[in-house]
């Protein structure tokens, strides 16, 4: 910026204008004598700028002292100060120039330079980047043709991730200055980043071959061209480009590193050591990932160059790391997994479990490849692929812990972790080395890959050390294992690492093995360049090994690759410098032994991964190259097959493939690291001890998942994934793998037998089950299932023999004699294995007896075969009917066959006034009477074992309603199968099922559903529990109340009632009753229902430790203020509810009808309930419920045993709600609420409404049938 002219016009005094100054920008200024001296000093500074920066700055400062408002002096001084690294002073100069600039172009120059400086200094600090953007945009507004401002703005946009805007801005620069070298170079980088390899390479090649451009630009173009060609797998051409760059600049660090990397990929080892030493000697050239491949590099060298790389990109950190957002420590951390590779990629598999954990968020900036892994990650994904840094930061704002899964690997965007304001940022999984410190608070490792005592040599940041392998391996069992591991004549060695990891020491070691074992072959992953295969063939020949013994295998999908490993490889030979990671895990999961060292060279992370994996699997790594060679060269044919079985078994036992355990360990790690961060303790390591009570081993969870897929009712493993082994094909593959791993394990052979049977291979199933029985001859259920399979195959007597063997220890033979002697017995409560096996044997030997088929159906249902159970039950019901034909044809028949499982033995309409009835049983009495009152003339109710005095005409509607024993049924126009859907097998013109409980899905087959006219359910919730096909035929007909039993009473606010089975919240209520009693004077809790005979029978069969639990409940029933009444008749219960002010019901039971709540509301007892969503309760209580606002979410088991009492916080809220209701009631504040509720209940909950719904349904069905 030179002074162009100074025209003297005279001088009266030093303060008068004596001349006019013209500048480069075309500004003409009047100047005094003293100001002319400023311009003279300014011009001297311009002249000195190229040869003496310090003196030039001094001259500009002299000019500024004379004329403070000389913007050109401030801009030039700022430029020189910036070049010296004195950034703050430079920016102050630019800011001052903006204040005094008197022309738009000069202001644009100052604004552009200030924006550029802020951009360079920001190092992804978003606030400074936004300020830089504002200055650059202002510069362009002031001077639209100002090329430098536009170029600076384009580079800023590129760094912000706003690539499309950057591209348009570079194109505008080239419109203004077509030969702008850096704009052309950066535009090519934009193309490369978008995957437009051809466009990028064309532009880069044009620059590289243009003699008119500067040597520096040509050098950058050649290096960029080489990277583009590498990305396109044009490795030979890439090496040529890097070689040309080296010829242009022999000492350039980046070029030397690129050339060494290209030659390594080509397996050109002729100059390897020289290339590596040269690239390491030139600081700043080697990228962190490439440095890991250099065996000659020390741990300290790699640590320092990685740290320098991060500092170059982001600036040096402060002594205390910059803290991000601070928040109170949450009970559950939101963990964001940041990655480019959440797709069909090793990272996608490694994070399969992690991104599905509660509180996990997938932070993806990679492509959507449409894979199952991508879909899984998308369950809770924040997509930041096309987001600017500011947008990405905003989208990550809710995350407490950012876990960078990439660091310095391909595709990584380090700046995304830097702009996250999460309190904790960690590096994990993708990059086997230091992240470089700075914004990384920790790296996550294990004690084998990164022993804490060596951490300072290898890492720039502190460590989180997991107790087992750092990998979160989560493999599915969906690949086929070989049926046997037969000895091989020729040993089949393999290595499926990319050739990038190959180096001459490993290659020489492998060739030594092949020479010592002349029949062995080595399978390698085929590279994309045929030239590399030719090079390695020559390297093999040079070491005395025929290239024909090198087998090149293509890339295949994951499942196919695992099958290939299992069937085609006897041992995996690891690399030395950069060993196998997920490829080694693949091999171990496929049962292939991995030969690896405990560490190589300087013992860096990348060389110790194999040892870590083996250790977590309970296997051993090798100590020396000699041991490696000796082990790999073993030639005995029977050596490798048992070793493969041992490897497969090890993969199922230890923590290596237990992703559930790893996920829990990581959760502990995140919380521990968060604690350190919260208290500002930044430099300490976090070392996790193994948990003393680990989860079930992978073997146990796999076994359990297989059995669940085959219909067993075993509870899933903790955190079991919804998709684990839930289809038959996957279950069969898992069973084959389990049996191959544990051929002497009867449970494994048993599981395979069941899976084969389910697949229709009964012969193979029998062989596996026979093997299981031989291994465990005293285990009854193995023989039982063998009998089941033989029976399915039609081998009845062989099946009977197996069933007999099943009961040898339980004196089954005596039971069988009794069962076969009295074959008309109908005991269906299969409470012991003895009765179950007796049913199998008796049904097998007497296949035409219907009652034995009922027994068999119950047995099948007990073992999870619901479809088989349905077939046996329906067949038995039809056969029983054929044997006892002779009754009358009914207009409407309600058949209450309970198949020996009645809760209320010997009940009938008279029970209402004697011992009372349950809600399901009383509904039959009331609804049948209401149907008769509607005008039906021939309603018959058939009961399993009615009291003799109840048989005959109903006393309230005689002649229209008749009560019968079961064997009187002949046929009906309308058959209503009460409670048990299998009763619908009886003959009738139209068939309806009246459900009371939640049905088993499996037994509702499509054919069965098609044969029904409608399904009566008790509520919308009840309907939702049906299979989808049955929901279309559902009609909601709730339970109701009979107006003859409506009672009014005082509804005392200090009296509370509980009126349901004891397992539906009573235990929890009694635990908090002292709180209610203390807060409400003279409070009384009246408990109805209680431990009836029917409940005792059910509880002993279904509630764990029933005796202990019952004793606990009965003890609590004796506390002050509790009045235990138990079972009462219908009228007494109605009067009790009318006396109570409130019904307390903190249930987590999946109530389908809940007549208890209906009655209480109709009598004026206001419900205070759990509002449990998985029940009918919210449908009934609507806005009248005074329970806690937040519904209870505890599982049903929470109220079964004292040890399960795990929801004290919610129950405290429940007690508070009950107290608040009582206090409001005592003050009269609930009087109107109670009146409105009684009116609502007495109108809505009447049986006549339900009867009308049934009548309309019968009529609609009749019209459809006709």
TrEMBL record:
Pathway: Protein modification; protein glycosylation. SUPFAM superfamilies: TPR-like, UDP-Glycosyltransferase/glycogen phosphorylase. GO terms for molecular function: protein O-acetylglucosaminyltransferase activity. The keyword Glycosyltransferase applies. Residues 328-479, 487-665 form the O-GlcNAc transferase C-terminal domain. Keywords: Glycosyltransferase, Repeat, TPR repeat, Transferase. InterPro entries: OGT/SEC/SPY_C (IPR029489), TPR-like_helical_dom_sf (IPR011990), TPR_rpt (IPR019734). Belongs to the glycosyltransferase 41 family. O-GlcNAc transferase subfamily. This is protein O-GlcNAc transferase. It comes from Chrysophaeum taylorii.
């Amino acid at each position: 910026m030179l002074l162009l002219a100074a025209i003297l016009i005279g001088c009266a005094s030093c303060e008068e204008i004596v001349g006019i100054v013209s500048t480069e920008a075309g500004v003409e200024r009047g100047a005094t004598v003293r100001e002319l001296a400023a311009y003279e000093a300014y011009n001297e500074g311009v002249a000195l700028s190229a040869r003496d920066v310090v003196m030039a700055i001094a001259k500009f400062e002299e000019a500024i002292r004379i004329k403070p408002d000389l913007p050109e002096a401030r801009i030039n001084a700022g430029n020189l100060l910036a070049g010296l690294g004195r950034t703050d002073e430079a920016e102050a100069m630019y800011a001052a120039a903006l204040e005094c600039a008197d022309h738009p172009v000069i202001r644009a120059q100052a604004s552009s330079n200030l924006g550029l400086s802020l951009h360079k200094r920001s190092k992804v600090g978003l606030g400074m980047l936004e300020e830089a953007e504002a200055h650059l945009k202002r510069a362009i507004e002031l001077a639209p043709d100002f090329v430098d401002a536009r170029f600076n703005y384009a580079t800023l946009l590129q760094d912000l991730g706003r690539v499309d805007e950057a591209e348009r801005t570079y194109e505008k620069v080239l419109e203004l200055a077509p030969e702008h070298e850096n704009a052309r170079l950066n535009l090519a980088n934009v193309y490369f980043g978008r995957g437009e390899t051809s466009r990028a390479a064309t532009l880069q090649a044009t620059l590289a071959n243009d003699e008119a451009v500067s040597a520096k630009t040509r050098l950058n173009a050649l290096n960029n061209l080489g990277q583009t060609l590498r990305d396109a797998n044009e490795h030979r051409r890439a090496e040529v480009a890097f070689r040309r760059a080296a010829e242009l600049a022999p000492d350039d660090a980046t070029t030397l590193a690129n050339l060494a990397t290209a030659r390594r990929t080509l397996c050109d080892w002729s100059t390897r050591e020289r290339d590596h030493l040269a690239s390491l000697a030139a600081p700043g050239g080697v990228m962190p990932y490439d440095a890991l491949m250099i065996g000659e590099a020390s741990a300290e060298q790699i640590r320092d160059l990685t740290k320098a790389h991060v500092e170059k990109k982001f600036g040096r950190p402060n002594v205390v790391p910059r803290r991000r957002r601070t928040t109170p420590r949450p009970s559950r951390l939101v963990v964001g997994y940041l990655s480019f590779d959440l797709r069909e990629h090793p990272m996608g598999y490694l994070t399969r479990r992690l991104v599905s954990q509660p509180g996990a968020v997938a932070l993806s900036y990679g492509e959507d490849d449409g894979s199952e892994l991508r879909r899984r990650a998308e369950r809770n994904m924040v997509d930041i692929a096309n987001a600017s840094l500011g947008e990405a930061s905003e989208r990550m704002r809710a995350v407490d812990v950012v876990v960078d899964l990439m660091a310095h690997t391909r595709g990584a965007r380090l700046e995304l972790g830097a702009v996250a304001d999460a309190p904790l940022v960690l590096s994990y999984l993708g990059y086997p080395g230091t992240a470089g410190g700075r914004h990384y608070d920790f790296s996550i490792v294990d004690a084998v890959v990164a022993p804490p005592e060596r951490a300072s040599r290898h890492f720039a940041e502190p460590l989180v050390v997991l107790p087992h392998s750092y990998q979160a391996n989560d493999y599915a069992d969906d690949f086929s294992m070989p049926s046997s591991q037969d000895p091989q004549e020729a040993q089949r060695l393999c290595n499926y690492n990319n050739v990038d990891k190959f180096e001459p020491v490993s290659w020489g070691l492998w060739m030594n093995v092949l020479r010592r074992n002349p029949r062995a072959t080595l399978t390698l992953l085929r590279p994309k360049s045929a030239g590399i295969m030719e090079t390695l063939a020559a390297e093999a020949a040079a070491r005395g090994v025929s290239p024909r013994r090198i087998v090149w295998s293509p890339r295949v999908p994951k499942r196919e690759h695992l099958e290939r490993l299992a069937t085609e490889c006897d041992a995996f030979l690891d690399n030395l410098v950069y060993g196998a990671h997920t490829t080694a895990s693949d091999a171990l999961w496929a049962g292939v032994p991995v030969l690896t060292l405990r560490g190589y060279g300087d013992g860096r992370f990348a060389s110790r991964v194999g040892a870590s994996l083996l250790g977590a699997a309970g296997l051993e790594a090798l100590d020396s190259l000699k041991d490696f060679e000796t082990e790999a060269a073993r030639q005995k044919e029977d050596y490798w097959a048992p070793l493969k079985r041992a490897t497969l078994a090890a993969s199922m036992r230890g923590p290596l493939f237990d992703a559930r355990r790893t996920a829990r360990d990581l959760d502990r790690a995140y919380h521990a690291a968060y604690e350190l961060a919260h208290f500002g303790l930044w430099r300490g390591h976090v070392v996790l001890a193994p948990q003393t009570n680990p989860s079930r081993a992978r073997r146990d969870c796999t076994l359990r998942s297989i059995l669940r897929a085959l219909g067993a009712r075993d509870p899933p493993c903790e955190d079991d994934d919804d998709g684990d082994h839930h289809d038959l094909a996957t279950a069969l593959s898992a069973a084959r793998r389990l049996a191959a791993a544990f051929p002497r394990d009867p449970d494994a052979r048993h599981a395979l037998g069941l899976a084969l049977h389910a697949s229709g291979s009964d012969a193979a199933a029998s062989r596996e089950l026979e093997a299981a029985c031989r291994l465990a001859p005293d285990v009854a259920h193995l023989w039982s299932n063998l009998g089941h399979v033989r029976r399915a195959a039609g081998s009845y007597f062989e099946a009977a023999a197996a069933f007999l063997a099943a009961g040898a220890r339980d004196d089954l033979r005596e039971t069988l004699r009794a069962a076969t002697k009295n074959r008309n017995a109908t005991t269906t409560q299969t409470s012991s294995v003895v009765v179950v096996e007796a049913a199998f044997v008796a049904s097998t030997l007497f296949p035409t007896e219907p009652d034995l088929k009922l027994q068999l159906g119950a047995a099948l249902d007990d073992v999870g075969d619901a479809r088989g159970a349905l077939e046996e039950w329906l067949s038995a019901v039809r056969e029983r009917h054929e044997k006892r034909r002779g009754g009358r044809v009914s207009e409407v028949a309600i058949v209450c066959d309970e198949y020996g499982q009645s809760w209320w033995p010997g009940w009938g309409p008279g029970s209402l006034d004697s011992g009372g009835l349950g809600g399901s049983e009383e509904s039959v009495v009331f609804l049948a009477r209401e149907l008769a009152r509607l005008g039906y003339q021939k309603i018959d109710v058939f009961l399993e074992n009615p009291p003799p005095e109840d048989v005959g005409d109903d006393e309230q509607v005689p002649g229209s309603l008749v009560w019968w024993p079961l064997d009187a049924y002949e046929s009906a126009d309308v058959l209503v199968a009460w409670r048990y859907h299998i009763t619908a097998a009886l003959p009738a013109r139209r068939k309806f099922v009246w459900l009371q409980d939640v049905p088993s899905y499996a037994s509702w087959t499509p054919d069965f559903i098609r044969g029904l006219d409608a399904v009566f359910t008790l509520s919308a919730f009840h309907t939702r529990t049906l299979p989808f096909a049955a929901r279309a035929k559902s009609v909601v007909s709730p339970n109701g109340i009979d107006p003859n039993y409506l009672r009014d009473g005082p509804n005392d606010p200090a009296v509370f009632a509980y009126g349901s089975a004891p397992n539906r919240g009573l235990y929890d209520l009694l635990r908090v009753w002292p709180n209610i009693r203390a807060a409400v004077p003279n409070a009384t809790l009246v408990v109805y229902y209680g431990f009836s005979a029917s409940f005792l029978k059910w509880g002993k069969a279904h509630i764990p430790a029933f005796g202990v639990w019952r004793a606990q409940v009965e003890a609590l029933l004796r506390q002050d203020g509790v009045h235990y009444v138990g079972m009462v008749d219908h009228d007494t219960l109605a009067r009790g509810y009318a006396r109570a002010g409130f019904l307390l019901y903190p249930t987590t039971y999946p109530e389908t009808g809940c007549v208890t709540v209906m009655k209480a509301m109709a009598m004026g007892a206001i419900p205070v309930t759990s509002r449990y969503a998985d029940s009918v309760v919210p449908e009934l209580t609507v806005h009248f419920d005074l329970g806690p606002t937040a519904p209870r979410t505890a599982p049903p088991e929470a109220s079964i045993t004292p040890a399960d009492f795990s929801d004290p916080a919610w129950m405290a809220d429940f007690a508070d709600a009950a107290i608040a209701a009582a206090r409001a009631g005592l003050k009269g504040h609930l009087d109107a609420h109670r009146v409105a509720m009684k009116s609502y209940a007495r109108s809505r909950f009447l049986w006549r409404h339900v009867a009308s719904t049934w009548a309309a349904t019968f009529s609609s069905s009749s019209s459809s049938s006709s």
